[in-house]
Every structure is written in C-alpha cells, then in structure tokens.
C-alpha cells in the first residue's frame, strides 16, 4: 500500500522524540543560586560544625537558604540560596564567618530531578556571554623560555671549556645555537667531545677556516617544540592552582593552540583582582635540612606540600642555597635500572653555588621549598560604616621533597628514590612551575556583567519566540494541513536540538542562540522543497497518493546535497573558528542533522498517518 | 505553470552584478572595513546608566581622567553607553574607568562588559577568518564538482564569492562594525547561498536529463521557474526570523542579523542569476550530464 509506514518506523520516530523530550527536560528546571564551600587544603574537612557556622552566618544576615549538603568525603559543601540577588552578600558573609582556610564560591546548583540525572540528563551549560563572568586569554612567552635555555647552554659550555682548560670564546648565535671559537683544530675536537658528552641532545657542527676553528651547538626543532610545550604546561598547572584559589565554580583553564591559555571564570566581576592572582609567579628555594642540634635561630619548620604527607614537616636551615631562577629545567626520567627519577639542570651560577654548598655536606639532606603567593582576606571598616574585604598577599612556603645528597652536586643532578613515574612527573612539574616560569601576558580580556548576560538570554529567547511564531503562521496559512505537519516537525526539531546539545555537554552562547534561530528559518526549507514538489506532481495530474510518494522521493537527493554542503561549511567553521564562531558552528551543524530527520522522516510519518492507506481526493496543501 | 524567461534578462543581471561588485570592491579598497575590536585590538567598555547618560559629560570626564581620544557612543538606548579606548590604552584597567565614571555621576553606573584584545590576536583572527573562508569555498567546490559537474562547481563558487564580496561591500559602505560574529554570519551566508544554488542546480541537472531539450537556455528557464516558488518561500521564512533577530535580539547580535539579512537577499538573487548565468557562459549542455549511469537510475525511481 502506498504511503504506509511499517509499524517500526512510527515507533522509531516516537522513540527518538521521547528520548529527545527526556534529555531536553533538564533545561526546564531552573538552577538554584548556591554557595559552594571547599577547604583550602585537603586536610580541611568540612563537617556539620562548619556547616552550622555557614547557616548561622546566613540566618544572621537574613538570607533565605535551604538544601545544605556535605560531600561524602567532607571535601565540599553546597548551600542553596533563595534569591540570586543576595548571592554576593551571602558569599561575603560566609567567607567572613569561616575565615581563611575555606574557599566560598558562587555556584548554580542544578535542580534536575534525580531520576533524570541518573539517566545522564543535564541542562545546557551557559557561555560567559549569557551567564556573566570573565574571559582571559594569556600568551606564554615561549621565546623568553627559549632564550633562558640558550643562556643556560652558553654558560654551561663556557664553564666546561674553562674547567678543561680549553681556551676559546663562547657566544650565542641566532635563536637556537651557541658557538665556541677555538684556537686550534685539536682544541675544537676536544671541545666537541666535551660538549657531546655533557649535552648529547644538542646538534653539533664544525665550522670556521684558517685562523679560527668553531663548533656550533644547536637545539633541534624538536627540542624547541618540547620547550614550548613545557613552558605552556607549566603555566597551565600554576594557573589551575591559582584559579582554584579564586573561588569560582566550574572555571575553565585550557590550552589553545601553540602558546595560548584561555581562562574563563563565570561569576567573577573584579578583573583587577583576578588578574593579580593569576599573574603572580611561584618560586623555589633549595636549603639544607638542619642538623638536629642546630639552634632554633638558624632553622625553620616547613610542612610537606603533598597531600599524602600532609602534617609531616622538616626543619630546614635559614640559608638559601639557590632559588628557582637558577633552575633551567626539570624533567621526569628513568635511571639505568629503570627507576623513576627527576633530572634537574641549573644555570652556570647555580651550578657553582650548588657544588660549593654540597661538597662538604654529602649524606646530609636537602629540602626543596615551593613558594606560592597567596591572599588572606581582611575586613576593613569604611568611613560610611560598611565593611570592605581587602586581600593581603603573603608567601606560602611548603616542602616538595628532601632527598639525601649522595655526592657533590653540580649544574646537573638528579633526585632518585621516587616511588612511581607519576610521582616523578608531578615533582618535575612542580619544580618547573617554581623555576621562573616563562612569562605570561594577557592578550585578551572580556568581562560580561551578570545583568547583560541575563538580558542576552531574555532577548535571545524573545527573538526565537517571535521568529518561530511568524514562521508557524506563514507555514499554516500557505500550506494548510501540510503546514501544520511541518510546524509539528519544527517543534520536534527544536526539542531534539536542545536535547542533543544538552547531551553532548555543549555550551550555549549568544551566537549559539543565533544559530538556533537560523536553524528555525532554514529547517522548514526541506519541507518547502517537498511540499512544492508535491504541488508540482498534483499539477501534472497525479493522484494525491502518487503525488505524496514521488514528491518525497524527488526532493530527497536535493535536500541531502543542500544539507551536506552546508554541513561542510559548519564543520570548517568549527575547526578553524574560536569562541563565538565555534558556538555558532555547533548549533548550526546539530540543527542540520536534527532537521533532516524531522523534516524527512518525521513529516512523512505524520503525512502517512493522516493520508496514507485511504482514498484521498484532495490534499490540503494550499493553492496548487 | 508559466515559464518565466529569466535568462532573457541575464545580460542586464550581469550588468547589475558587475556594478554591485565593482562598488563593493571600490569601497573595500578605499574605505576598507571598519574592523571591530576583535580584529584591531584595543579596549571596549559598555556601561549602563540608571538615568539617561550625557555623552558630552562622559567625554569630558574621560578626557580629564587620562582617557583622551576615547570614542563614546550610546548603544541601543540612551542609558547604555559604549566606550572604545584608543590604541595604546591596551593595558588600561577597564574597571578603573568604570569607577571614574561612577564617581562623577549621581546615579549608578553598572558595568555591562569590558573587552580587551591584544593587537597580535586581531591579526591572527583576520588570517584565520580569511583562511576559513577560502577553505569553505574550496571544499564546497570539490563536493559539487564530485556530485554534479565541474561547470556547476564554478557556477556555485562564483555565486558564493559574489555574495560574500557584496555583503562585505555593504558593511564597508554603511560603515557597520565588522567583528567576529559578523564573520560567523558571513560564513553562514556561504552556507545559505549554497543551499539555494544547489537546489537550483539540482533541478537544472534533472531537467537536462528529463526534458531532452537541446536548448540550455530554455531548460534553465524552466528549472528556475519551477524552483522559484520554493526559493521565495524559504527566503521569506529565513528573512522573517532574521528580521526578528535584528529588531529584538539586542545590540550584540544586530551586526550578525544584518549581515545575514543582506547575505540572504543577495544569495537568493545570485542563485537565480549568477550561478545559472555562469552555466550558460560556460556552455553547459545535456552531454555534460548524461553520465554516469548510476545517476540515471535515480530517474527510474520516479516512475510508478
């Protein structure tokens, strides 16, 4: 029978729609404004007592709150608030009540019912342009990192030659090379062997004729990439640590391209504050572990930084051997027995200081301190009686490791006795993070106030509604019953689009909303194509059933071609574009896919249900 | 159905296209585009005043506060103000500026957004945008060449280039700001115009095979007449939503909507005239489309 779908096809359409409804549903539940409370360190457990201090502070301020929960591990707690307007005041009050040691972050707690979230249902995330917040783009100065490395090789080679009593002039050349000018061919050969032994990673090349014999040591392109990668990943780590300190829920710290880092902080307003905290540099200090009998005045107590050793400490001497700026590189590696270790390279000056300090202290231990700039909040009474929170910076020094010195150390040494390769790479990362990091600069900064975000949502939704209403009106007037069918398909398309975006965890941005609006306009195109084909077939004198059948068939290849080419454009947009362009590309391509399904399969199912399998004299498809 | 003699007017249409293109290119080369912050770099601050804002007063406040040469305009309403700081103020803290405005105004000044873009980012974006555009055109040409025939690919890409250049020219002449969202819109115009062109080309291909007429002009006229209804209906629905977006979507989305509005109108025209005229110019004939056999098989499916 013409125009009858087998039962399974109807069921398929129904099933897709049902799943779509299910996963679009979480977006109907508006999230509650909330505060998220976390301990500054993992030792800081949040218990009922902490929570009662929080609720006490909120009650005192007369702020409505409910639904307090503590994580099973006691790592963080969530308090929902009655009014979004009071979120900032609530944050200040609670932070005040708890003091430093706790981070109080603004949060939006989902209200998705449990059965929905158990099924993986979640609402769409909102982009910064809709939720308000700060977006930073930072550039890591890879060239500076390269220069430091080049400088390191220059001093290392000069020192090695001097130690071996080979006379020559060592200087940097270009961006990647160090050249030594020597007096004789003989000298050149011994210099070559020396450099090759000390720095097997460098590319060596002989040069110079007659009077001067030169040897040029170059870093390879591969090393360059590695150094750039190190510089970026080291900055990523430190930025992540600092962002956590800002007390932002769901921050984003992400590498972008070769040397950029994107930081997005929803809910933050004070960019100056955020920039200050993000921009500070960490540092390292190497100090000897103090002898047991050392007087109090010569030693200091430091706690370990790692969470496994939280609470344990060492006494270190007050004298500093070297600081982080002498560290050129730290790399996780393996020794000849396959045990994990960390290789550390110092610059020339650092090497001298290190060897002087360790020469007479073999078998003693040396502690490595990690220094981070942190901020403490103090409350100052203003003239008008209100209180203002002031951030006071201080340096936090914590012990990374305290290994035994096995022999006199020079510019290159290693830390062994590590438990796992993971521990080694973490230690190396912290050492690099503390070594003077490749400088970063802010190349882009965008702040969107919360009121603008809310307005963007309001306007976006309004224009979608109006646009949709106009299209619906037009389609029904122009195509009658078929118009109604197209409109139903359009609604289903929107539901599927929202469901799919929620499911893949896509972020909704303003251009994303524009993409949805455009999809609404273009989604009817497939139906317009089909319907005008059907009209043509009717004009050619075919029976209504025949016209439906061949109308759909004839339009199919056109629809496919048109949509695939548009999809190509959308995919290129996604691949090349960043930020807003990407958001637009995602909605556009998802919209193309869902609209093809609803416009071809979905409308056909409805048409078949309505007209299929019976005698039809006329089709209600508007003027033929 | 009445067959409209579209191709009879093609010389006139070509002249119109040529004039539009030349005007666009002339404006692009003399006036250039007024690049938005995304591309030039710099700092932009949007604030909301509790009462209607006095732009003159704001300007003098800024001049006195060390932000001389700032461009101050109202943004949408008379209470929303957009301030663009001149180059060299790149590192200026936008929050300090907002505080300055607050101090000199009795009501409240609310920060809407601050955008700072470093100069190197802008340069990269321009390169990236151009690259995206070229890549999109190239890939599309490949796909159409593969699915249809080389002459159709040339026609489609000519139509796309036509639409993009004229839309860019429109932005240049009107002096509308060209930012990232407008770039996204321009790429969407490529997608849309392509959609239109392919529907028309599809029908031309079908009719060359079905009608077996030897006169390409007639076949193209028939095809264009047949698809005219669809072209107009789709353009109309898209324009309806775009007008809503331009009028109701707010200031941040206006440029996007306007670029698409212009693009869709031009795209509709170009799918009728540019793509088809190029086909005629290149001497398309039914022999071009007789092969391959597999494509012919699709035709048989239409039979009852």
UniProtKB/TrEMBL annotation, chain A:
Q: Report the locations given in the UniProt record.
A: Cell membrane
Q: Which Pfam families match?
A: Sec_GG (PF07549), SecD-TM1 (PF13721), SecD_1st (PF21760), SecD_SecF_C (PF02355), SecDF_P1_head (PF22599)
The UniProt keyword set, sorted, is:
Cell membrane, Membrane, Protein transport, Translocation, Transmembrane, Transmembrane helix, Transport
Residues forming the SecD export protein N-terminal TM domain are: 2-106
Q: Which GO CC annotations does the UniProt entry carry?
A: plasma membrane
Where does the chain cross the membrane?
459-479, 484-504, 510-531, 552-577, 583-607
Q: Which HAMAP family match?
A: SecD_B (MF_01463_B)
> Assembly and interactions?
Forms a complex with SecF. Part of the essential Sec protein translocation apparatus which comprises SecA, SecYEG and auxiliary proteins SecDF-YajC and YidC.
> What is this protein called in UniProt?
Protein translocase subunit SecD
Species per Swiss-Prot/TrEMBL record: Haliea salexigens
